[in-house]
Design brief:
Blueprint lengths: L1 H17 L29 H6 L1 E2 L6 E17 L9 E17 L3 E13 L11 E16 L4 E9 L21 E10 L2 E9 L18 E10 L3 E17 L2 E18 L2 E14 L2 E15 L8 E9 L34 E11 L4 E11 L7 E2 L5 E3 L8 E13 L4 E12 L1 H6 L6 E11 L1
Antiparallel strand pairs: 1-2, 2-3, 2-21, 3-4, 4-5, 5-6, 6-7, 7-8, 8-9, 9-10, 10-11, 11-12, 12-13, 13-14, 14-15, 15-16, 16-19, 17-18, 19-20, 20-21
Length: about 450
């Protein structure tokens, strides 16, 4: 059985690499693996792990190669996952395998390549699109520094690449799912002191579950610019514009060609125990022959009691996300989250960030340097009665015009994360979704859903 072959190989590899963990001080694993810099390891003790991260190619060591990757395993169980009574139990064993190579040729040119394999076993419905992509080129780009000094940098990156901006509301690498998201195109990146801006034009490939079978769209699906301004003592401001195109976009209003423009801003800051994350976006454009007029506003505020045992952090998240006011009139007020991270509303979200109002208090406890606990309650309503509910990806799920109720339901979540070291981590979680009056109207007979999972991840 392929599960056990993969697990056995993974255990042997982890054991080998872990021999070098105890004295590992330069390790800095990031969400985007291409952001890691191991140039400082050239003068370090040459352990097995260090040899992987800094492999000199030239005599002067200015040309060097970095190797790395990830192994991740997850078991998840679901009961009545579609809110259907007596739907029963369904389980999946999910696996992610990733390897990358990062070649630096001097200070101005680099080449980055990464393969990713996402596998699913066990589900009686087969793998979801975000659960399986047996083998794909996840990143393959060249990056050249056009300008680099103590005050300014300007770089150009061309090829297939992952992207992640802000809170991941609109552009996310989608780390929570087995299959991470990527794009193909060109991006220019400028930084100067406290200011940075990226400008890009990208296509979003059609992702299929087989081996090297993902297909390019051969059109610009996403373009725009994302800027960040850091004000000393005043926090951070993000400003961005995003353009997007889909030829067969589906909403309760219908299916049509969608050309959408998003203008948005975000303010975020932490310090003195307080946490602020505020974001607002407005969308306009064309949907078929009609007009788009959509928006969202979100707050995420909290306070961490640094002096108390376990440093409890009390937080409140609140989102207003517009929905279509009147199905069939040709115009569209449904907000499109574009390429969001799937787990923004829970680690097994059942509804997505379109036509939604949510109120989300949560508590985080730092039990030790390695262990943290989190408890969440997420109350969900439809924003507009004339629109339905959408999946975590933003794709249309179920029509809502048949019901005049707004309350969708309440999700209760409890999770724990444990970091054995900088490379090895584990998490467990459980979720109970109590259906509201809207679900009872559209699903008959309806039932509350349950979910639990355990995940272990090793990044090297």
């Amino acid at each position: 059985m392929r599960i056990f072959r993969y697990v056995r190989a993974a255990v042997l590899f982890i054991a080998l690499c872990s021999c070098s963990l105890e004295r590992l001080s330069a390790q800095s694993i990031k969400l985007m693996r291409y952001d890691e810099d191991y140039n400082k390891l050239k003068d370090s003790v040459r352990t097995f792990y260090h040899r992987l991260k800094f492999i000199p190619v030239s005599a002067d060591q200015k040309t060097y190669l970095t190797l790395g990757g990830e192994l991740r395993y997850e078991y998840g169980g679901k009961i009545n996952e579609d809110w259907i009574r007596d739907q029963g139990y369904n389980a999946s064993f999910l696996q992610r395998y990733s390897v990358y190579a990062d070649l630096h040729t001097g200070n101005n040119l680099r080449f980055f390549a990464q393969l990713n394999s996402g596998l699913e076993d066990g589900s009686k419905y087969g793998p979801a699109p975000v659960d399986e992509d047996q083998l794909a080129v996840q990143n393959l780009f060249a990056e050249v520094n056009l300008l680099k000094n103590d005050r300014h940098t300007l770089a150009l990156r061309v090829g297939r690449q992952e992207m992640n901006y802000g809170s991941g509301r609109l552009i996310s690498v989608r780390e929570g799912t087995t299959v991470r998201q990527y794009f193909t195109g060109a991006k220019a990146m400028y930084t100067s002191g406290r200011f940075a801006i990226d400008a890009f034009v990208m296509e979003a490939d059609e992702v299929n579950p087989g081996v090297f079978d993902n297909r390019p769209t051969h059109q610009a699906n996403l373009w725009g610019a994302y800027a960040n301004l850091n004000i000393a003592g005043g926090g951070n401001f993000d400003f961005y514009y995003l353009g997007s195109r889909r030829d067969n976009a589906e909403f309760e209003e219908g299916s049509a060609r969608e050309m959408r423009h998003t203008v948005a801003t975000r303010y975020w800051k932490s310090g003195g125990g307080f946490i602020y994350n505020l974001e607002a976006a407005y969308q306009f454009g064309e949907f078929g022959q009609g007009k788009i007029n959509a928006w969202t506003g979100a707050i995420d505020i909290g306070y961490t009691f640094e002096q108390l045992k376990f440093k409890p952090s009390l937080n409140l998240r609140n989102d207003y996300i517009s929905g279509d006011q009147k199905a069939g009139d040709g115009n569209l007020q449904t907000f499109n989250p574009l390429y969001p991270k799937g787990g923004y509303f829970g680690f097994n979200p059942l509804i997505g960030p379109s036509n939604l109002i949510d109120l989300h208090p949560y508590l985080v406890m730092t039990m030790s340097e390695k262990l943290s606990l989190q408890a969440d309650v997420v109350l969900n309503w439809r924003y507009a009665e004339g629109d339905g509910i959408y999946r975590p990806s933003g794709n249309f799920n179920t029509a809502g015009s048949v019901s005049d109720h707004r309350f969708i339901g309440t999700a209760y979540l409890l999770s724990a994360d444990y970091r054995f070291n900088s490379m090895l981590s584990a998490s467990v979680g459980g979720q109970y979704f109590k259906v509201g009056s809207f679900i009872k109207d559209i699903v008959n007979p309806a039932a509350d859903s349950r979910f639990f999972n355990i995940q272990i991840s090793y990044k090297f």
